Amino acid sequence: MNQRAKDLEDANRYKSEFLANMSHELRTPLNSMLLLSSSLSKVKDIEPGKLNKQASTIYDAGSSLLNLINDILDLSKIEANLMTLNIEEINISSLLYELKELFMPQADAKNIRLGSTIDASALIAFSSDKTKLTQVLRNFLSNAIKFTGNNGSISIEVAPNTEEDKNLRPIVISVIDNGIGIEEKNIGLVFEAFKQADGGTSRQYGGTGLGLSISKELTSLLGGRIVVKSIVSEGSTFSICLPIEIDTN
Length: 249
Ligand code: ADP
Prior knowledge:
Number of helices: 6
Bound molecules: adenosine-5'-diphosphate
């Protein structure tokens, strides 16, 4: 490796390590802010509603900041190669059950139907890193809920892969929604850090545009691939295709 390439690699590593350390340090004061504002929002208010409301605002602002910091920490850990895999046997039906339990309250709040199906010919157990896979599927589900209107429907489907990488990645888990959809020209864009399908999205729906960049990196750590199909005003399908076992060599 020539000197310039080595310098660049060092600079990149320092940047990632700096980001990882900084995000870590920011979380500690933020957590105490969250804890205190949460308890302040519940104490008996002298001027009814006022203090509680202000404390709730501090709590909400702190929570968004914490989400952003966690996302940056994840991305920088991935970049610095600090992510380690924790491989275990995963049972598909319990995974789907846990995900539905987690998202049912948010779906109920928008009166969205949240269902799941497992194709009879799909594999029902495989080994992977459950925490990382869950993080990807949680991102798909929270986007599906965010971008689907009231009374819509979302389903988590498990099916065998029929695409050309079917031997390498036989398992496909998809989150299908009938929400706003994504314009074809923007589908590639949504995986870039801080990018959203349209510039106005963040104002209308919130979010940082980091979730899918992280999901893409985590998926490739799992030996997987993400496939997106979407039609504007009809809905989107985000699928993760996975191997039965991760080749760690
Ligand atoms: P965030 O949701 O925080 O903006 P993501 O990286 O998870 O960040 O998503 C990036 C963008 O992709 C979103 O802002 C949205 O424009 C688009 N997107 C993701 N999922 C969906 C979906 N299910 N339906 C429509 N648009 C979506």
